[in-house]
Amino acid sequence: MMSLFHNVFCLGWGLLLGFSPLYPHEFAATKPTSDILICRNAHISFYSPAPIEDIRAETDQAVSAFNSATGSLYFKVMIRSFTFRRSLMQEHFNEDFMESDRYPYAEFKGNVVQMPDLSKDGNYPVQVQGILTIHGVSKNYTVPATLSVKNKQVSGHAVFNVKLADHHIQIPRLLMKDIAEQVQVTVDAVYQVDNSSSANPGA
Description:
Blueprint: H1 2-17, H2 24-30, E1 36-48, E2 55-67, E3 72-78, E4 83-84, H3 87-97, E5 105-113, E6 122-134, E7 137-150, E8 153-163, E9 182-190, E10 192-193, H4 196-199
């Protein structure tokens, strides 16, 4: 499963950053490696207030790629990697709401609007625009985010709301009063320079 996830990530990353995954050496020859930053353990959580019990879940298994020169940004997360405090709630989430076997991933492809100069330490408020695909339904989003640089390491943070109806996620009638129509999503990623291309130029 993880090998498949890795392959899907590489395909989406390649399309986003402008090269064919079949010929990665062409990309390595034209793009500075230091511009391509990756995160293999991005943290994503979501929260929804509810009368009986608040709904919270999180994962640290999301993957992300960020081109610090162009602002291109890519995220992908396996839906079943989200964990809940209660196993029954996790089961309902995967089977009744997200249909995780049918739609195993959520994905975001976008860009940072007006990229700041990340050569100096600091916190840089930005806007991120792109397409978020959840439950097989894609929707345009523009969300505020913060890029931070400390000791030359770049990290990203964003909080935004997702309406379930926008992605055709249906709430069972019996639970309509107990579950909010939108959830608050928090994303955190700490990026590293991708050295894979330089280490394996012919891969």
